[in-house]
Amino acid sequence: MALRLRTDMPKIENVTEWVNGSISNEDLSGKIVLVHFWSISCGLCKESLPDINQMREDLPHVSFVGIHMPRSEKDTDIDAVKETISKYNLKHPQGIDNMHSVVDAFENQFVPAFFLFDKEGKLRHRSAGEKALSMLKKPLERVLGESE
């Protein structure tokens, strides 16, 4: 991941399709934001989805945005992605990024991957892979503590 800490949140635009409502950078202005990259072909991603749902419920002051990042041609099946979103009860906005517009803007290569932004829209933490979710806990607590 090359996106540097303390840089501004890249534009979330040119998404192939939104599920659970669309979102723009303007909608996220002044909010703590967690952008989560995942893929239907990623077992680790699917294992973490219930934990992400719980986090979303536990942290109402954080705006969650899911970005589905296809890793193969098969992953670009929009109906399959929507089915997974429904199956795992993902209620926050989910951008299906078949053209990798958001993926490229965030300079992301991995799933699962998490990008945490503070209320000023600055990147405060990024993590990817097997331990990505557990690595997010302390930075998230720190950013939440700063905003009180």
UniProtKB/TrEMBL annotation:
Residues 3-145 form the Thioredoxin domain. PROSITE patterns: THIOREDOXIN_2 (PS51352). GO terms for molecular function: antioxidant activity; oxidoreductase activity. It comes from the Bacteria. Keywords: Disulfide bond. Gene3D superfamilies: Glutaredoxin (3.40.30.10). InterPro entries: AhpC/TSA, Thioredoxin-like_sf, Thioredoxin_domain, Thioredoxin_ResA/DsbE_sf. SUPFAM superfamilies: Thioredoxin-like (SSF52833). This is TlpA family protein disulfide reductase. It comes from Polycladospora coralii.
